[in-house]
Input
Amino acid sequence: MEVKLSDLKLIPARRGVADRMKKGQTLRVINTLGLQVVDFWAFNADDLSEPLSMEHTHVSLGKTIPEVGDSLVTNKRRPIVTLTADTSPGIHDTLMAACDIYRYQLLGAEGYHDNCTDNLGQALDAIGVTRINQPAPFNIFMNVPVSNGSTLTYFPAEAKPGDYLELRAEMDCIVAFSACPQDMIPINGEACIVQDAHYTITD
Amino acid sequence: MSDLKLIPARHGVADRMKKGQTLKVINTFGQQVIDFWAFAAHDMNEYMSMHHTHAALLKIIPTVGDTLVTTKRRDIMTIIEDTTPGIHDTLMPSCDRYRYEQLGCTEYHMNCKDNLEVALDKIDVERLVHPAPLNLFMNIPVSPSDNNSIAWDGCPAGVGEYITLRAEMDCIIAFSSCPQDIVPINGPNCEIQDTHYLIEG
Output
């Protein structure tokens, strides 16, 4: 599916953005410059207390990394988005919480550090939506393999410039993104450079 | 023995702990999964979080010596002893009525999500959020092939085996002797059993 340049919407590096989708529309999340993790959330447009839920999705899919054809579900176990295309190596994460000020304090950051938790609140606020909960995000392009049945290791994202993932909305929903500001651990590439990403919403 | 408190099969129980107290959760008859939650006593919006604990521990199965953390990444529970094979789960949500509907139930089925609410209500605590539980004794192995595929295996905890946790803050705790009797997580016979707990110190 071709997307026009005019359809592209920016997810600024280190920042969050929220938008709305109608059931049946397609969202493309683009790793514009490569290596950038994008935290993603979705909420039932009619009920903010029904978000996309990683733990419920684990049950529904019988796996922790969604792949093309999989429907991710809410905390009421209803499909909210279906993964319809993925040009990246297919590595994404559903185990990690959104980064927050506490995370960066523990990592030794001095002063305020941009973070996905605050980005979600600000992004929703910018479209007039009051956040009522903080679900764990779908960490698109994030690379945290499980080894030895339990061990988690942070690796750089493997997505290349222009790689994208497409999600079809299975209900009217509010979507939000954060171009993860993590620059102290190399999840956004070895150089720890945080990049812009883009998205499109098309019928 | 008189201090042992019952978690009735299929039901939930809530209680309170002070920082420094220990909690022994006992698989009295063996092979019973217990959903476990902990909340900061002063703020029910701050709770033991599996996703935040994954980052803190860099593992999905906590073991002896590990401290589980809250949504503010503060220590809430430390595992200090575990006589079971050490298999627990942090990937699964509580079972709920939707789960049992999808498994084919046409009538109400007891479930951990409702059990948490009822248990907290009994100690006059309002539940504000529904966190994913620490699923004690639950056996959900992850295979790195097939996109980290998971399996629902039987609970390996033996009769009388237990796990002991120390509270790192004043907290409200809750348990549910998981009523799952359709998927064999509580042993191949899918029997739901009573379990017990003990708070000391």
